[in-house]
Write a sequence for this structure.
């Protein structure tokens, strides 16, 4: 089975309503080009590093502007829409970095809360403590969609290969890691991590990203990407600005890659001494 997919590249600011307008325009563009599955980046709704301002802008999922718009878009366009993530107010001072997936009737299929928190100290004084604001998730997700089995992950999760291996062993044919990768880490690692997760699991990898200099001062790497199960880059955006990245997916390529190199089957238990 072959079908078209799209990864939406954004440069989200701090105004949720304005970001939703951009989301709607780009998703409609992707659907007009024939995509039946469309993915948006991490923090689609707002990129905001100030904790107080973030809490002032976000809402619970049932009243979230991104969730409302995504449901309507999926229904209007007859697509599966995957919001890579948006900040969701959980109450009691807790926030989820949450992915949302909608089916063509506008109903939510599931959500996924980012498991691994981006707590790092980089060169040139760049430091992040995602765990200071966000509550990590504890459950991985594989969805059985009409066209493929889809594994959900977000950004920093891509550095934890066991998550993707578990999804592949559960039957996932498409893996995902929508992101807001920093420019510094993206330049060093983005492409190789995307291709590695695809190659080692014999699966497609689709990752929509944030790109450019944002209102809160951070700079993200961009390069939204779609990789096939053999590690070939099918489509990739540039490093700045909005974009719609499209590719034709052939699910038979997953079985072909896993047949040539059956490492999922060949894996063995072992002890470390």
């Amino acid at each position: 089975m072959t079908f078209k997919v799209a990864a939406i590249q954004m440069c989200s600011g701090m105004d949720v309503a304005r970001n939703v307008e951009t989301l709607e325009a780009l998703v409609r563009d992707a659907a007009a080009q024939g995509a039946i599955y469309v993915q948006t980046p991490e923090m689609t709704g707002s990129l905001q590093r100030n904790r107080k301002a973030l809490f002032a802008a976000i809402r619970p999922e049932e009243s979230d502007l991104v969730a409302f718009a995504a449901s309507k878009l999926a229904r209007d366009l007859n697509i599966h829409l995957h919001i890579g993530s948006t900040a969701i107010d959980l109450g009691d001072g807790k926030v989820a970095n949450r992915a949302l997936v909608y089916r063509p009737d506008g109903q939510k299929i599931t959500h996924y809360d980012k498991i691994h928190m981006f707590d790092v100290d980089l060169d040139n004084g760049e430091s992040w403590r995602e765990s200071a604001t966000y509550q990590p998730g504890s459950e991985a997700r594989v969805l059985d969609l009409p066209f493929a089995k889809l594994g959900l992950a977000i950004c920093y999760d891509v550095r934890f290969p066991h998550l993707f291996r578990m999804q592949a062993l559960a039957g996932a044919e498409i893996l995902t890691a929508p992101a807001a990768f920093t420019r510094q880490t993206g330049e060093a690692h983005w492409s190789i991590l995307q291709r590695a997760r695809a190659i080692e699991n014999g699966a497609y990898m689709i990752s929509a990203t944030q790109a450019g200099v944002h209102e809160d001062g951070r700079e993200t790497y961009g390069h939204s990407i779609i990789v096939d199960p053999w590690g070939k880059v099918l489509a990739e955006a540039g490093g700045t600005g909005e974009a719609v990245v499209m590719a034709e997916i052939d699910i038979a390529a997953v079985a072909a890659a896993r047949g040539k190199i059956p490492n999922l089957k060949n894996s063995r238990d072992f002890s470390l001494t």
